[in-house]
Design a protein that fits this description.
Number of helices: 6
Structural class: alpha/beta
Largest sheet: 6 strands, mixed
Order of helices and strands: EHHEHEHEEEHEEEH
Shape: globular
Strand content: 15-25%
Strand order of the largest sheet: 1-2-3-6-5-4
Radius of gyration: 18 Å
Mean pLDDT: 86
Number of strands: 9
Oligomer: single chain
């Protein structure tokens, strides 16, 4: 289960998502509920925003220690979806993690590094300009308006399943997989 949580500061969270501060507590309660229900590992997606406080990652690492390995922090490079996107120095973030890690493992899939820090797993997700990330992608996503999305970085290959019958879904899934093409093709 993946849950988006860019900050533990309820006021900052409300500003990011454009919601009331009490939604932040509901997200935290949802993390507890997911762990208690055994939906582990829960992955907390923390998009690194330009201008984030330097202690945000430390706060998040300290927060997830309580879950004894049932929660993984995924530090995510922001992607340009055409709004308020600012480049973040992910190399500096990875250097900081590297200096604190007791071990580092690189996942073959997507060339992601996983850092063990104080008993917590921190995985860095860097999809921008990453041809290995794209070449090894095996995900289909569903958009809020009911379309299969074969590529996170493209909108020209969506497959509409919103009005599909149960019988049509299998063919539409096959169609979406056929439309899959790596966005970054460098390597």
């Amino acid at each position: 289960m993946n849950i988006s949580l860019d900050t533990l500061d309820s006021e900052v969270y409300a500003g990011i998502c454009g919601c009331s501060e009490n939604i932040h507590q509901k997200v935290l309660d949802g993390i507890d509920a997911a762990v208690n229900a055994g939906l582990t590992p829960v992955k907390l997606n923390m998009v690194m925003l330009n201008g984030s406080r330097s202690d945000e990652m430390d706060n998040m690492i300290n927060y997830i220690k309580r879950y004894n390995g049932n929660v993984i922090l995924q530090v995510i490079e922001p992607m340009d979806f055409g709004y308020k996107w600012q480049k973040v120095d992910m190399d500096a973030i990875e250097n900081q993690l590297q200096s604190r890690a007791s071990s580092v493992v690189e996942r073959k899939l997507h060339r992601r590094k996983k850092y063990q820090i104080d008993g917590v797993e921190v995985e860095v997700v860097r999809p921008i300009d990453n041809s290995k990330f794209c070449a090894n992608c095996n995900r289909l996503r569903v958009t809020a308006d009911g379309k299969l999305k074969p590529c996170l970085l493209r909108d020209d290959n969506l497959v509409d399943i919103h009005q599909a019958s149960t019988g049509e879904l299998k063919e539409l899934f096959y169609k979406a997989v056929e439309k899959r093409e790596p966005f970054y093709k460098g390597i």
